[in-house]
Amino acid sequence: MKLHCAVLDDYQGVALSSADWGPLADRVDVRVLREHLDDRAAGGSGDALVAAVEDCEILVVMRERTPVDAALLDRLPRLRLVVTSGMRNASVDVAAAHARGIVVCGTASSPQPPTELTWALLLGLARHVTTEARALREGGPWQSTVGADLGGRTLGLVGLGKIGGRVAKVGLAFGMDVVAWSPNLTEERAAEHGVRLAKGKRELLAESDFVSLHMVLSERSRGLIGAEELRAMRPSAYLVNTSRAGLVDGDALLTALREGWIAGAGLDVFATEPLLADDPLRSLPNVLALPHLGYVTEGNYGRYFGEAVEDIEAFLAGAPVRVLS
After folding, report:
1. Residue 1: pLDDT band by 50, 70, 90 thresholds?
2. What is the DSSP annotation of 160-192?
3. What pLDDT score was predicted for residue 42?
4. How far, rounded to the nearest angstrom, does the alpha carbon of residue 233 sit from its chain's CA centroid?
5. Could you give the CA distance from residue 174 to residue 95 in angstroms, rounded to a whole number?
């Protein structure tokens, strides 16, 4: 008898074409769910999600689209394997899974796609791309904005890890003055990337024309950017967040954008995803928002789903690989 596997949240319908699932054909029945069925973030019961996957021994989840927490695991007694894209997924309760005898495996993930998307947002904000593109399509004014220069301006990076370091390299190529800060960043580490170490978080925010966040979300970093920090930024400055929404106090950010504390924000991550239809971030004129596309590229999807197949094969062979602990 075949095992049942559900691939969750395949929004683009490309999970099966991004990898060769053939090696599993005679042992696993794989089905793809394109619609986001998890309504728990909006106060729902999660019944639709459970009904769709309760017969499954295997789940393949994409990043944090559907949280796999203890409450969900309790409702899926047949589940034996969870495969997540990437080797870190804060929305999967690995400890709860292990306590229930469920193996959790990950996949490789490249830092290059989110690096590139960070610059798509930053450049889009600097040159008012959406405003000008919309006017061109709709017959509006021919040139209505004046773009911000990058060369000679200051780029502030909150976090200088795998992604932040790559963002810094591009900023330097543009001729920007790049300054970085994180709680444990040293002057030596900053120098390795050719950037300056800020004296502190507030100092970085106060001197930067563009601020980009590249921190891992934890209890320590949650709310790292709040009202006080946003007030410290220049009214002409832009904030870009392709990391995690929880790094920023959402209410404070809305106030900052509405009252002009900062010039605007480029956002690829949100507290609730998909973003609710009535969320004000959808309509604020100084927000350039994308539907969490940072990791969504052909190369990354090939890695995610290709290694998901490998993870399932190894599990079936009794020797799981890339096991998360």
Report:
1. confident
2. -SHHHHHHHHHHHHTT-EEEEE-TT--HHHHHH
3. 82
4. 23
5. 44
Q: Is 273 a catalytic residue?
A: yes
pLDDT in tens, 15-72: 999 999 999 999 999 999 999 999 998 889 999 999 999 999 999 999 999 999 999 9
Q: Is 211 helix (H, G, I), strand (E, B) or coil?
A: strand
Active site residue 193: no
User: Which residue among 57, 207, 229, 273 is the active-site one?
Assistant: 273
Which residue of the set 4, 63, 166, 244 is catalytic?
A: 244
For each of the domains in the chain, give its residue range(s) and CATH number, in order of start.
3-109+297-316 (3.40.50.720), 112-289 (3.40.50.720)
Mean pLDDT of 73-97: 97
What six digits make up the tokens of 310?
């490998």
Task: Write down the catalytic residue from 153, 193, 292, 303.
Answer: 292
Q: Is 219 a catalytic residue?
A: no
Which residues on adjacent β-strands are paired with residue 145? none
121-172 pLDDT, tens digit each: 999 999 999 999 999 999 999 999 999 999 999 999 999 999 999 999 999 9
- What's the half-sphere exposure (Cβ side, CA atoms, 13 Å) at 59? 30
Q: What is the DSSP letter of 148?
A: P
- Give dist(CA 69, CA 99) in Å, integer: 12
The amino acid occupying position 187 is: E
List CB contacts of 270: < 8 A, sequence separation 6 or more: 245, 279, 281, 289, 292
> What 3-state class would DSSP assign to 318?
coil
Which residues share a beta bridge with 69?
none
pLDDT at position 212 is 98
